Amino acid sequence: MSNDIFLEPGGSRRHTGLWVAVLIVVAVAIGGVWYIATQLRLAKHARTAKPVVVQVEPVKTEVASPAPAVPPPVAPPAQTALMAKVEEPVSAVVPSTPPAAPPPVVPVTQVAAPVADASVRLAEARELFKNDRCLQACDSCNQVLDKNTNMAVRAQAEALLGEIHVTLAFSRRPMPEKTDYTVQVGDTLAGLAKKFTTTKELIRRSNNFSGDVIRLGDRFRVLGAKWAVTVNKNNNDLLVTMNDKFFKRYRVGTGQYSMTPTGTFHIVSRLEHPTWYRAGGAPVPYGDTNNVLGTHWISLDIPHYGIHGTWETNTIGQQSSQGCIRLLNSQVEELYILLPEGTPVTITE
Predict the structure, then answer these.
(1) 185 in a structural domain
(2) What is the pLDDT along the chain (349 residues), one digit of tens a residue?
(3) What is the distance between the alpha carbons of residues 164 and 168, in angstroms, rounded to a whole number?
């Protein structure tokens, strides 16, 4: 047997196992190198790749571009803020047509001007009245009534004008409606009252004398006018007009449950310190606490109805009577002096 091919028992198997191990080590090394190289290539690609978000943001690309030759219009602050929020071009925010102009706002001072002017005129009227310039004060009040529809202002003007009118009527102060008259032979006080369509009481009051005796040559200033009365049951007021113009307005009480009749009536008699002839009972004289007629009674041409005074001041302005029209005693006395027999009295709802 040749020594060249002598092998130690089991040596063939050991050499085979050794080569297998070497091959495995080499394969593992090659795989590791390939894996490391692959990871390095991926990392390099990740570092050099551009983010997707940069490629799809046109606004940022436009901002980076050179400015155009003609500068774009500058958006107002509110529109600029909106553009920054939505990242859109200015042309998408600014409307193509200008917005409609808002309606003009009337300043408060213009709305309040008539009332302010009326207040000034009323203040002037009060000052004129205080200085006994009554006719000029009347003119100022009438201007307020002619030019103002504000109910509160009109009420103030009417109240002042009514006070001035009564002052003029009850004195010798001049008025366009007054006539200077010298007593002639045969004149009587009642005759003068009838001649001038007034009352004896008004002639006495305005000329500051008492009694019924007048003398030849006496000089009187007499107010002669066409009087009329309108009562409104819903408002509980009574309006006196002189020659179809406002004279004075009074608060009144009217009949419960609308018992006051409506229509046009006339004054037929006037009585101071009246006795109350109540239905089904004994007469109640003036001064008795049960007498409901107050200090004066003005009878209408409808039985049992008239205008009278009252001591029950809390009933004024309400539907509180048995059908008559009642006023404060001081105010019914004014009507008693002013209104002659025959004066029309219209009562409305």
Answers:
(1) no
(2) 444 444 444 445 556 667 767 778 777 778 776 777 777 676 665 555 554 444 444 444 444 444 445 455 554 444 444 343 434 444 444 455 555 566 565 554 444 566 789 999 999 999 999 999 999 999 999 999 999 899 999 999 999 999 999 999 999 999 999 999 999 999 999 999 999 999 999 999 999 999 999 999 999 999 999 999 999 999 999 999 999 999 999 999 999 999 999 999 999 999 999 999 988 889 999 989 889 999 999 999 999 999 999 999 999 999 989 899 999 999 999 999 999 999 999 999 9
(3) 6
Examine the domain organization and report whether 162 and 236 are in the same domain: no
| The total number of structural domains that make up the chain | 2
Domain of residue 259, residue span: 227-348
**C-alpha–C-alpha distance, residues 299 and 251, integer Å:** 19
Asked whether residue 45 is domain-assigned, the answer is no
Task: Look at residues 100, 183, 177, 93 and name the one whose alpha carbon lies nearest to residue 138.
Answer: 177
Name the pairing type of β-strands 237-242 and 319-321: unpaired
**Selection from 213, 218, 248, 255 nearest residue 234 by Cα:** 255
Is there a single domain that holds both residue 343 and residue 246? yes
Contact 267, 299 (CB under 8 A): yes
Is 7 within the bounds of a domain? no
Tokens in use for 81?
């803020």
CB 39 within 8 A of CB 58: no
CATH number of the domain encompassing residue 342? 2.40.440.10
Which runs of E-coded beta strand occur in 39-186?
Answer: 178-182
Q: Are residues 149 and 237 in the same domain?
A: no
Report the C-alpha gap between 192 and 343 in whole angstroms. 17
Closest CA to 293 of 285, 303, 281, 301: 285
How far, in Å, CA of 206 to CA of 222, rounded?
A: 8
- Please report whether residue 36 resides in a domain: no
